[in-house]
Specification:
By secondary structure, the chain is an alpha/beta fold. It is built from 14 helices and 12 strands.
Length: about 400
Protein backbone atom coordinates (compact mmCIF):
# COMPACT_ATOMS: atom_id res chain seq x y z
CA UNK A 1 0.00 0.00 0.00
CA UNK A 2 3.02 2.30 -0.25
CA UNK A 3 3.72 1.66 -3.91
CA UNK A 4 1.09 -0.39 -5.76
CA UNK A 5 -0.64 2.61 -7.36
CA UNK A 6 0.20 6.25 -8.04
CA UNK A 7 -2.49 7.23 -5.53
CA UNK A 8 -0.97 5.09 -2.78
CA UNK A 9 2.45 6.58 -3.49
CA UNK A 10 0.98 10.06 -3.01
CA UNK A 11 -0.78 8.98 0.21
CA UNK A 12 2.42 7.44 1.59
CA UNK A 13 4.52 10.49 0.69
CA UNK A 14 2.06 12.89 2.33
CA UNK A 15 1.68 10.63 5.39
CA UNK A 16 5.46 10.66 5.87
CA UNK A 17 5.61 14.44 5.38
CA UNK A 18 2.97 14.94 8.08
CA UNK A 19 4.81 12.63 10.49
CA UNK A 20 8.02 14.61 9.91
CA UNK A 21 6.12 17.80 10.63
CA UNK A 22 4.70 16.31 13.82
CA UNK A 23 8.19 15.30 15.01
CA UNK A 24 9.88 18.63 14.24
CA UNK A 25 9.67 19.89 17.80
CA UNK A 26 10.92 16.57 19.18
CA UNK A 27 13.74 16.07 16.68
CA UNK A 28 15.49 19.40 17.37
CA UNK A 29 16.72 18.47 20.87
CA UNK A 30 17.63 15.02 19.50
CA UNK A 31 19.87 16.70 16.93
CA UNK A 32 21.52 18.78 19.66
CA UNK A 33 22.17 15.52 21.53
CA UNK A 34 24.03 14.05 18.54
CA UNK A 35 21.17 12.00 17.08
CA UNK A 36 19.65 12.12 13.63
CA UNK A 37 16.71 10.37 12.02
CA UNK A 38 14.86 10.17 8.72
CA UNK A 39 11.56 8.68 7.62
CA UNK A 40 10.99 8.03 3.95
CA UNK A 41 8.87 6.09 1.51
CA UNK A 42 10.66 3.49 -0.57
CA UNK A 43 9.72 0.80 -3.06
CA UNK A 44 8.60 -1.72 -0.44
CA UNK A 45 7.06 0.47 2.25
CA UNK A 46 8.34 2.98 4.78
CA UNK A 47 11.90 3.30 6.03
CA UNK A 48 13.21 4.69 9.32
CA UNK A 49 16.90 5.48 9.79
CA UNK A 50 18.47 6.57 13.06
CA UNK A 51 22.14 7.45 13.49
CA UNK A 52 24.44 9.16 15.94
CA UNK A 53 25.31 8.44 19.58
CA UNK A 54 23.97 5.00 20.38
CA UNK A 55 22.90 5.41 24.01
CA UNK A 56 19.58 7.15 23.21
CA UNK A 57 18.78 5.70 19.80
CA UNK A 58 16.11 3.41 21.23
CA UNK A 59 14.38 6.39 22.88
CA UNK A 60 14.27 8.26 19.57
CA UNK A 61 13.09 5.17 17.68
CA UNK A 62 10.24 4.68 20.14
CA UNK A 63 9.14 8.31 19.66
CA UNK A 64 9.21 7.95 15.87
CA UNK A 65 7.24 4.69 15.84
CA UNK A 66 4.72 6.12 18.30
CA UNK A 67 4.13 9.07 15.99
CA UNK A 68 3.67 6.72 13.03
CA UNK A 69 1.13 4.61 14.88
CA UNK A 70 -0.83 7.40 16.59
CA UNK A 71 -0.44 10.54 14.47
CA UNK A 72 -1.95 13.90 15.42
CA UNK A 73 -2.81 15.50 12.09
CA UNK A 74 -4.84 18.57 11.18
CA UNK A 75 -6.34 19.63 7.87
CA UNK A 76 -4.51 22.95 7.51
CA UNK A 77 -1.14 21.19 7.83
CA UNK A 78 -2.25 18.62 5.25
CA UNK A 79 -3.26 21.34 2.76
CA UNK A 80 0.05 23.16 3.19
CA UNK A 81 2.12 19.99 2.76
CA UNK A 82 0.11 18.85 -0.24
CA UNK A 83 0.79 22.18 -1.97
CA UNK A 84 4.48 21.77 -1.17
CA UNK A 85 4.46 18.22 -2.56
CA UNK A 86 2.82 19.40 -5.80
CA UNK A 87 5.42 22.17 -6.09
CA UNK A 88 8.19 19.59 -5.75
CA UNK A 89 6.64 17.49 -8.54
CA UNK A 90 6.42 20.57 -10.72
CA UNK A 91 10.00 21.61 -9.90
CA UNK A 92 11.26 18.22 -11.01
CA UNK A 93 10.02 19.06 -14.49
CA UNK A 94 12.58 21.86 -14.49
CA UNK A 95 15.45 19.42 -14.06
CA UNK A 96 18.13 19.10 -16.72
CA UNK A 97 16.81 17.29 -19.81
CA UNK A 98 19.35 14.47 -19.34
CA UNK A 99 17.95 13.79 -15.87
CA UNK A 100 14.37 13.93 -17.13
CA UNK A 101 15.18 11.40 -19.84
CA UNK A 102 16.97 9.13 -17.34
CA UNK A 103 14.00 9.30 -14.95
CA UNK A 104 11.63 8.37 -17.76
CA UNK A 105 13.64 5.23 -18.59
CA UNK A 106 13.56 4.18 -14.92
CA UNK A 107 9.79 4.86 -14.81
CA UNK A 108 9.23 2.75 -17.90
CA UNK A 109 11.31 -0.17 -16.65
CA UNK A 110 9.99 -0.25 -13.08
CA UNK A 111 6.63 -2.00 -12.80
CA UNK A 112 5.94 -0.14 -9.53
CA UNK A 113 7.30 3.21 -10.67
CA UNK A 114 5.18 6.24 -11.51
CA UNK A 115 5.77 9.35 -13.59
CA UNK A 116 5.28 12.86 -12.25
CA UNK A 117 2.20 13.24 -14.46
CA UNK A 118 0.67 10.12 -12.90
CA UNK A 119 1.48 11.32 -9.38
CA UNK A 120 0.11 14.79 -10.07
CA UNK A 121 -3.13 13.35 -11.44
CA UNK A 122 -3.44 11.06 -8.41
CA UNK A 123 -2.86 14.00 -6.04
CA UNK A 124 -6.05 15.61 -7.31
CA UNK A 125 -8.04 12.74 -5.76
CA UNK A 126 -6.34 12.85 -2.32
CA UNK A 127 -7.95 14.81 0.53
CA UNK A 128 -7.39 15.13 4.26
CA UNK A 129 -9.98 12.47 5.10
CA UNK A 130 -8.08 10.05 2.84
CA UNK A 131 -4.88 10.52 4.86
CA UNK A 132 -6.75 9.77 8.06
CA UNK A 133 -8.16 6.54 6.59
CA UNK A 134 -4.81 5.62 5.05
CA UNK A 135 -3.00 5.95 8.38
CA UNK A 136 -5.44 3.51 9.98
CA UNK A 137 -4.83 0.84 7.32
CA UNK A 138 -1.14 1.40 6.55
CA UNK A 139 0.09 -1.02 9.22
CA UNK A 140 -2.63 -3.66 8.88
CA UNK A 141 -0.31 -5.96 6.95
CA UNK A 142 3.42 -6.02 6.39
CA UNK A 143 6.80 -7.17 7.59
CA UNK A 144 9.68 -5.58 9.45
CA UNK A 145 13.25 -5.80 8.16
CA UNK A 146 15.89 -4.16 10.32
CA UNK A 147 19.63 -3.55 10.46
CA UNK A 148 21.56 -2.43 13.52
CA UNK A 149 25.33 -2.00 13.29
CA UNK A 150 28.17 0.12 14.61
CA UNK A 151 28.88 0.66 18.31
CA UNK A 152 26.29 -1.87 19.50
CA UNK A 153 26.28 -5.48 20.62
CA UNK A 154 23.74 -8.22 19.96
CA UNK A 155 21.83 -7.52 23.18
CA UNK A 156 21.27 -3.87 22.29
CA UNK A 157 20.32 -4.76 18.72
CA UNK A 158 17.76 -7.28 20.01
CA UNK A 159 16.28 -4.68 22.35
CA UNK A 160 15.90 -2.24 19.45
CA UNK A 161 14.25 -4.91 17.35
CA UNK A 162 11.83 -5.66 20.21
CA UNK A 163 10.63 -2.05 19.92
CA UNK A 164 9.82 -2.62 16.27
CA UNK A 165 8.00 -5.86 17.04
CA UNK A 166 5.94 -4.01 19.65
CA UNK A 167 5.23 -1.26 17.12
CA UNK A 168 3.89 -3.87 14.67
CA UNK A 169 2.24 -6.17 17.22
CA UNK A 170 -1.17 -5.71 15.55
CA UNK A 171 0.21 -6.07 12.04
CA UNK A 172 -0.60 -9.27 10.16
CA UNK A 173 2.76 -10.72 9.04
CA UNK A 174 2.74 -10.47 5.26
CA UNK A 175 5.72 -10.76 2.90
CA UNK A 176 6.08 -7.65 0.75
CA UNK A 177 7.14 -8.51 -2.82
CA UNK A 178 10.31 -7.13 -4.32
CA UNK A 179 10.36 -5.15 -7.53
CA UNK A 180 10.03 -6.64 -10.98
CA UNK A 181 11.25 -4.75 -14.03
CA UNK A 182 10.18 -4.77 -17.65
CA UNK A 183 11.90 -7.19 -20.00
CA UNK A 184 12.55 -5.49 -23.33
CA UNK A 185 12.24 -7.99 -26.15
CA UNK A 186 15.40 -8.48 -28.19
CA UNK A 187 15.13 -6.73 -31.52
CA UNK A 188 12.75 -4.07 -30.19
CA UNK A 189 13.67 -0.38 -30.03
CA UNK A 190 11.24 1.80 -28.06
CA UNK A 191 11.33 5.58 -27.85
CA UNK A 192 9.56 7.84 -25.36
CA UNK A 193 9.30 11.64 -25.68
CA UNK A 194 9.57 13.72 -22.49
CA UNK A 195 8.26 17.28 -22.20
CA UNK A 196 10.53 20.05 -20.92
CA UNK A 197 10.78 23.83 -21.09
CA UNK A 198 14.58 23.65 -21.25
CA UNK A 199 16.31 24.91 -24.38
CA UNK A 200 18.65 21.87 -24.61
CA UNK A 201 17.84 18.53 -26.18
CA UNK A 202 18.80 15.23 -24.57
CA UNK A 203 18.61 11.48 -25.07
CA UNK A 204 19.07 8.62 -22.61
CA UNK A 205 19.81 5.44 -24.56
CA UNK A 206 19.44 2.18 -22.59
CA UNK A 207 20.36 -1.30 -23.81
CA UNK A 208 19.18 -4.34 -21.84
CA UNK A 209 21.75 -7.12 -22.04
CA UNK A 210 20.00 -10.20 -20.67
CA UNK A 211 18.36 -11.65 -17.59
CA UNK A 212 19.67 -11.55 -14.00
CA UNK A 213 23.08 -13.16 -14.35
CA UNK A 214 26.19 -12.21 -12.39
CA UNK A 215 28.50 -13.12 -15.27
CA UNK A 216 26.63 -10.86 -17.68
CA UNK A 217 26.83 -8.05 -15.12
CA UNK A 218 30.58 -8.57 -14.80
CA UNK A 219 30.95 -8.41 -18.57
CA UNK A 220 28.88 -5.21 -18.76
CA UNK A 221 30.97 -3.56 -16.02
CA UNK A 222 34.19 -4.33 -17.89
CA UNK A 223 32.78 -3.30 -21.27
CA UNK A 224 31.60 0.02 -19.82
CA UNK A 225 35.13 0.70 -18.52
CA UNK A 226 36.51 0.13 -22.03
CA UNK A 227 33.90 2.41 -23.63
CA UNK A 228 33.52 5.34 -21.22
CA UNK A 229 36.66 7.37 -21.96
CA UNK A 230 36.60 7.04 -25.79
CA UNK A 231 32.84 7.79 -25.81
CA UNK A 232 33.38 11.02 -23.91
CA UNK A 233 36.42 11.99 -26.00
CA UNK A 234 34.79 11.41 -29.37
CA UNK A 235 31.29 12.80 -28.71
CA UNK A 236 32.17 15.54 -26.24
CA UNK A 237 35.68 16.67 -27.14
CA UNK A 238 35.86 15.95 -30.87
CA UNK A 239 32.27 16.25 -32.10
CA UNK A 240 31.24 18.69 -29.34
CA UNK A 241 27.70 17.34 -29.23
CA UNK A 242 27.14 18.60 -25.71
CA UNK A 243 28.70 19.35 -22.36
CA UNK A 244 27.00 16.40 -20.60
CA UNK A 245 28.21 13.19 -22.25
CA UNK A 246 28.23 9.93 -20.30
CA UNK A 247 28.30 6.17 -20.78
CA UNK A 248 28.09 3.63 -17.96
CA UNK A 249 26.91 0.21 -16.86
CA UNK A 250 23.27 0.51 -15.82
CA UNK A 251 22.14 -2.60 -13.91
CA UNK A 252 18.58 -2.30 -12.61
CA UNK A 253 17.69 -4.87 -9.94
CA UNK A 254 20.71 -6.87 -11.11
CA UNK A 255 19.50 -6.98 -14.73
CA UNK A 256 22.58 -6.13 -16.83
CA UNK A 257 22.39 -3.10 -19.08
CA UNK A 258 24.32 -0.14 -20.40
CA UNK A 259 23.30 3.47 -20.83
CA UNK A 260 24.47 6.41 -22.92
CA UNK A 261 23.38 9.93 -22.07
CA UNK A 262 23.94 13.17 -23.96
CA UNK A 263 22.49 16.64 -23.38
CA UNK A 264 23.09 19.07 -26.22
CA UNK A 265 22.41 22.77 -26.90
CA UNK A 266 23.17 22.37 -30.60
CA UNK A 267 21.63 19.17 -32.02
CA UNK A 268 18.32 17.36 -31.60
CA UNK A 269 17.54 13.93 -30.12
CA UNK A 270 17.55 12.11 -33.48
CA UNK A 271 21.10 13.33 -34.17
CA UNK A 272 22.19 12.39 -30.65
CA UNK A 273 20.88 8.84 -31.04
CA UNK A 274 22.41 8.51 -34.51
CA UNK A 275 25.77 9.63 -33.11
CA UNK A 276 25.55 6.99 -30.35
CA UNK A 277 24.66 4.27 -32.87
CA UNK A 278 27.54 5.31 -35.13
CA UNK A 279 29.99 5.34 -32.23
CA UNK A 280 28.98 1.86 -31.09
CA UNK A 281 29.18 0.39 -34.60
CA UNK A 282 32.68 1.77 -35.12
CA UNK A 283 33.85 0.94 -31.60
CA UNK A 284 33.46 -2.83 -32.00
CA UNK A 285 36.80 -2.87 -33.84
CA UNK A 286 38.42 -1.04 -30.90
CA UNK A 287 37.13 -3.69 -28.48
CA UNK A 288 38.39 -6.45 -30.77
CA UNK A 289 41.87 -4.86 -30.64
CA UNK A 290 42.12 -4.86 -26.81
CA UNK A 291 45.01 -7.12 -25.80
CA UNK A 292 45.48 -9.25 -22.70
CA UNK A 293 47.69 -6.72 -20.90
CA UNK A 294 45.24 -3.82 -21.40
CA UNK A 295 42.34 -6.02 -20.33
CA UNK A 296 44.17 -7.03 -17.14
CA UNK A 297 44.75 -3.35 -16.31
CA UNK A 298 41.05 -2.58 -16.85
CA UNK A 299 40.10 -5.51 -14.61
CA UNK A 300 42.45 -4.38 -11.87
CA UNK A 301 41.09 -0.82 -11.88
CA UNK A 302 37.49 -2.05 -11.69
CA UNK A 303 38.25 -4.47 -8.85
CA UNK A 304 40.02 -1.72 -6.89
CA UNK A 305 36.93 0.46 -7.24
CA UNK A 306 34.51 -2.28 -6.16
CA UNK A 307 36.58 -3.42 -3.17
CA UNK A 308 37.70 -0.08 -1.78
CA UNK A 309 37.16 0.41 1.93
CA UNK A 310 34.05 2.19 3.18
CA UNK A 311 34.96 5.80 3.92
CA UNK A 312 32.14 6.52 6.38
CA UNK A 313 29.78 4.57 8.59
CA UNK A 314 26.92 5.69 6.33
CA UNK A 315 28.67 4.09 3.33
CA UNK A 316 28.80 0.80 5.19
CA UNK A 317 25.17 1.18 6.27
CA UNK A 318 24.12 1.63 2.66
CA UNK A 319 26.14 -1.36 1.51
CA UNK A 320 24.76 -3.61 4.26
CA UNK A 321 21.23 -2.41 3.67
CA UNK A 322 21.41 -3.13 -0.06
CA UNK A 323 22.50 -6.68 0.74
CA UNK A 324 19.52 -7.11 3.07
CA UNK A 325 17.05 -5.51 0.67
CA UNK A 326 18.31 -7.82 -2.09
CA UNK A 327 17.93 -10.78 0.33
CA UNK A 328 21.63 -11.61 0.26
CA UNK A 329 22.08 -12.51 3.89
CA UNK A 330 25.64 -13.80 3.48
CA UNK A 331 26.80 -10.22 2.79
CA UNK A 332 29.16 -11.49 0.11
CA UNK A 333 28.00 -9.66 -3.03
CA UNK A 334 31.32 -7.86 -3.44
CA UNK A 335 33.19 -11.15 -3.23
CA UNK A 336 30.89 -12.77 -5.78
CA UNK A 337 30.99 -9.96 -8.33
CA UNK A 338 34.76 -9.67 -7.86
CA UNK A 339 35.14 -13.41 -8.56
CA UNK A 340 32.89 -13.09 -11.63
CA UNK A 341 35.01 -10.19 -12.92
CA UNK A 342 38.22 -12.16 -12.31
CA UNK A 343 36.77 -15.07 -14.31
CA UNK A 344 35.48 -12.91 -17.18
CA UNK A 345 37.36 -13.47 -20.41
CA UNK A 346 38.19 -10.85 -23.00
CA UNK A 347 36.35 -12.96 -25.57
CA UNK A 348 33.09 -12.81 -23.59
CA UNK A 349 33.34 -9.00 -23.38
CA UNK A 350 33.93 -8.81 -27.12
CA UNK A 351 30.82 -10.97 -27.68
CA UNK A 352 28.82 -8.59 -25.47
CA UNK A 353 30.03 -5.69 -27.62
CA UNK A 354 28.58 -7.47 -30.65
CA UNK A 355 25.31 -7.78 -28.75
CA UNK A 356 25.43 -4.07 -27.88
CA UNK A 357 25.63 -3.01 -31.54
CA UNK A 358 23.13 -5.53 -32.91
CA UNK A 359 19.48 -4.47 -32.69
CA UNK A 360 18.40 -8.08 -33.10
CA UNK A 361 20.34 -9.27 -30.03
CA UNK A 362 19.27 -6.74 -27.41
CA UNK A 363 16.26 -4.65 -26.39
CA UNK A 364 16.61 -0.86 -26.45
CA UNK A 365 14.72 1.92 -24.72
CA UNK A 366 15.38 5.58 -25.54
CA UNK A 367 13.84 8.54 -23.72
CA UNK A 368 14.42 11.94 -25.25
CA UNK A 369 13.73 15.64 -24.80
CA UNK A 370 13.35 17.92 -27.82
CA UNK A 371 14.71 21.18 -26.43
CA UNK A 372 12.95 24.49 -26.99
CA UNK A 373 15.93 25.66 -29.04
CA UNK A 374 15.16 22.88 -31.54
CA UNK A 375 12.51 23.13 -34.22
CA UNK A 376 9.13 21.84 -32.95
CA UNK A 377 8.97 19.46 -35.93
CA UNK A 378 12.56 18.24 -35.54
CA UNK A 379 12.81 14.51 -36.37
CA UNK A 380 12.40 12.09 -33.46
CA UNK A 381 14.64 9.08 -32.90
CA UNK A 382 13.46 6.01 -34.81
CA UNK A 383 11.59 3.33 -32.88
CA UNK A 384 8.23 2.23 -31.55
CA UNK A 385 6.78 5.29 -29.81
CA UNK A 386 5.49 4.85 -26.26
CA UNK A 387 2.44 7.09 -25.96
CA UNK A 388 1.04 5.58 -22.76
CA UNK A 389 3.46 4.57 -19.98
CA UNK A 390 0.93 2.37 -18.14
CA UNK A 391 -0.14 0.58 -21.33
CA UNK A 392 3.49 -0.07 -22.29
CA UNK A 393 4.19 -1.78 -18.97
CA UNK A 394 1.10 -3.98 -19.23
CA UNK A 395 2.16 -5.16 -22.68
CA UNK A 396 5.67 -6.23 -21.62
CA UNK A 397 6.78 -9.37 -19.83
CA UNK A 398 8.32 -8.79 -16.39
CA UNK A 399 11.69 -9.96 -15.15
CA UNK A 400 10.68 -11.18 -11.68
CA UNK A 401 12.69 -10.30 -8.55
CA UNK A 402 15.65 -12.39 -7.47
Amino acid sequence: VARDSARNVVLAELYVEMIREQLNEYSYPATLAGLDYSIYRHQRGLGIRISGYNDKQAVLLEAVTQALKTPTFDESTFNRLKKRYLRSLNNQRKSDPARLASNRVVNLLGLASWTNDQLEAASATVYYRDIERYGKTLFNEGEVVSLVHGNVNKTVATEIFALLEKFLSDTKPTPVPHRSIVAIESGKRYVSPVESDHSDAAAFYYVQLGDRDINLRAQSFLLSRIIESPFFHELRTEKQLGYSVQSFAFPLNDVPGMAFSIQSPTVGPAEIVSAIDEFLSAFSERVDSVDAEEFATIKSGLLNQINRNDQRLADRSNRYWKEIDDQRFDFDSRDKISAAIEDTTLESVQLMMNQLISDSRAGRLIAYVNGKAQKPDAPAPAGVVIDDVAAFKKQQKPIPPR
